[in-house]
């Protein structure tokens, strides 16, 4: 009885479009626009994309559906979900790990998002116009290793994130996602049209779509799988939390497919906006994070209309980052407010405040004048890079592995079917789904994990 009352009082997404916008907003982020193109560059283009698509289909998609169904079945945050579905067992620690991962990921994510904000200002004020490639590189180096500015932007970005999350699911997250995601789509299409109509764009498209299998090795496959996790927001309870706000009428299988396709499509569209433009100006596709912050400003300042397209590009990055950061913060806020019974406001302040402090530490670890930049942590890297390593190699793979095992072996087919086939929905590929969560995904993730931490 009490439970039923609780169910009624929980804030939910208000519409199907809102669900897709919010979940796709979480998935589509810096991962798609900042990271996917550059790792595609590192591993040689099209062949890597094909490997990535296979990872998405066999592991990413089943895992997303798993997270959705755990969340919706339990109607709870990432920790509470396991407590309700497996009471009296240590499974809730999977949720805890997700909450920890949210702190870790959002700390560096908010710093990079802060860089995007600074780059909007740089683009608007025309800082890059007439600069040489060396100068543009120096601008990037100077800014990211400065002491004050990156911290200020991190705080501003976290402030905006908290402000949206504080407003709740329907009136905060959903409302902004429904406005920001269409905006993102329009901007990326404009940038794509600009890029492919440049003379010489063809070699960039060939780089993206003509596979060179010689570049594919074990490391590339691991990078593809790791990125599939990050890009689809899996392994830390984001989709469990969002799943808990999805109504029982909705078809979870379809929702997961739509979000997966949207995420993959935007990553490809980002590649199409970037590589043809880069190749058209005969620039080497910068392998590494400099691709968007150094290579692209270079491209924009040579491109007709580049002033305008440059601004659009960094607005795009910021919008993508924002709809993801709110989903990360929501994992912590949902946990604080439901498990610790804090008000949403208090939960947001506490979570947002603590994460901002970690974000400041990340920014400081890059600041050349700070003593903290001399402190080396995991594998000899500074704090910010250690946070990235922790999430990529430890927290997300273990979190994802545990969710698969939980759905495949603990819940089992009958309970899974009950949830995904609710209210007349029907999942036609149940056997594939069960094989994927019971065997394919856990084994693949275990391999990535063991490789990532250097055991194999
Ligand atoms: N998927 C987002 C991106 O591509 C980042 C993100 C949001 C994320 N929520 C997450 C990554 C949860 C891992 C886990 O940028």
Structure description:
This protein is mainly α and 456 residues long. The protein has one domain: Orthogonal Bundle (Hydantoin permease). It has helices at 2-9, 16-27, 30-42, 46-74, 78-85, 92-124, 133-144, 149-166, 169-196, 202-209, 218-231, 238-243, 252-280, 290-302, 306-339, 344-366, 383-420, 430-452. The longest helix is centred in the C-terminal third of the chain and has 38 residues, at 383-420. The chain starts with a helix and ends with a helix. Mean pLDDT is 93; it is low at 1-8. The protein binds tryptophan (TRP). Tryptophan (TRP) binds next to helix 2, helix 3, helix 11 and helix 15.
Explain the layout of strands and helices.
Blueprint: H1 2-9, H2 16-27, H3 30-42, H4 46-74, H5 78-85, H6 92-124, H7 133-144, H8 149-166, H9 169-196, H10 202-209, H11 218-231, H12 238-243, H13 252-280, H14 290-302, H15 306-339, H16 344-366, H17 383-420, H18 430-452
Helix pairs in contact: 2-9, 2-13, 2-15, 3-11, 3-13, 4-5, 4-11, 4-13, 4-17, 4-18, 5-6, 6-8, 6-15, 6-16, 6-17, 7-14, 8-9, 8-15, 8-16, 9-13, 9-15, 10-13, 11-17, 14-15, 15-16, 16-17, 17-18
Residues 26-27, 29-32, 105, 230-231, 233, 235-236, 238, 324, 327-328, 396 line the site of tryptophan.
């Amino acid at each position: 009885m009490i439970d039923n009352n609780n169910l009624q009082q929980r804030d939910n997404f208000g519409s199907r479009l809102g669900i897709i916008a919010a979940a796709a907003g979480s998935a589509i982020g810096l991962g798609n626009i900042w990271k996917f193109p550059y790792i595609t560059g590192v591993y040689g283009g099209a062949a890597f994309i094909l490997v990535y698509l296979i990872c998405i289909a066999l592991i990413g998609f089943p895992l997303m559906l798993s997270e959705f169904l755990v969340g919706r079945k339990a109607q709870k945050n990432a920790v509470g979900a396991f407590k309700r579905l497996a009471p009296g067992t240590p499974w809730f620690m999977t949720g805890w790990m997700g909450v920890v991962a949210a702190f870790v990921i959002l700390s560096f994510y908010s710093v990079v998002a802060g860089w995007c904000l600074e780059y909007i200002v740089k683009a608007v004020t025309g800082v890059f116009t007439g600069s040489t490639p060396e100068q543009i590189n120096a601008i990037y180096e100077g800014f990211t290793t400065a002491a004050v500015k990156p911290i200020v932007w991190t705080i501003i970005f976290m402030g905006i994130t908290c402000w949206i999350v504080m407003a709740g699911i329907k009136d905060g997250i959903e409302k902004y996602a429904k406005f920001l995601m269409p905006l993102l789509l329009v901007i990326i299409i404009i940038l794509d049209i600009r890029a492919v109509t440049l003379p010489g764009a063809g070699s960039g498209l060939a780089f993206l779509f003509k596979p060179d299998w010689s570049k594919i090795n074990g490391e590339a496959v691991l990078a593809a799988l790791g990125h599939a996790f990050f890009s689809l927001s899996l392994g830390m309870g984001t989709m469990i939390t969002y799943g808990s706000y999805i109504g029982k009428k909705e078809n979870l299988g379809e929702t997961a497919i739509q979000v997966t396709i949207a995420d993959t499509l935007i990553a490809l569209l980002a590649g199409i906006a970037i590589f043809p433009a880069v190749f058209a100006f005969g620039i080497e596709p910068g392998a590494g994070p400099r691709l968007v912050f150094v290579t692209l400003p270079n491209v924009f300042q040579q491109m007709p209309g580049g002033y305008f397209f440059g601004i659009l590009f960094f607005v795009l990055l910021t919008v993508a980052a924002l709809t993801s950061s709110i989903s990360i913060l929501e994992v912590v806020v949902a946990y604080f407010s439901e498990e610790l019974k804090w008000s949403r406001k208090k939960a947001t302040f506490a979570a947002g405040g603590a994460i901002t402090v970690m974000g400041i530490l990340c920014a400081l670890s890059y600041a050349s004048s700070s003593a903290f930049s001399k402190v080396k942590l995991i594998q000899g890297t500074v704090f910010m890079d250690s946070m990235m390593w922790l999430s990529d190699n430890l927290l997300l793979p273990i979190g994802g592995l545990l969710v698969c095992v939980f759905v495949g072996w603990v819940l089992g087919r009958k309970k899974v079917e009950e949830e995904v086939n609710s209210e007349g929905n029907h999942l036609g590929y149940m056997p594939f789904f069960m094989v994927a969560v019971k065997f394919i995904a856990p084994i693949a993730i275990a391999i990535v994990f063991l490789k990532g931490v250097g055991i194999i």
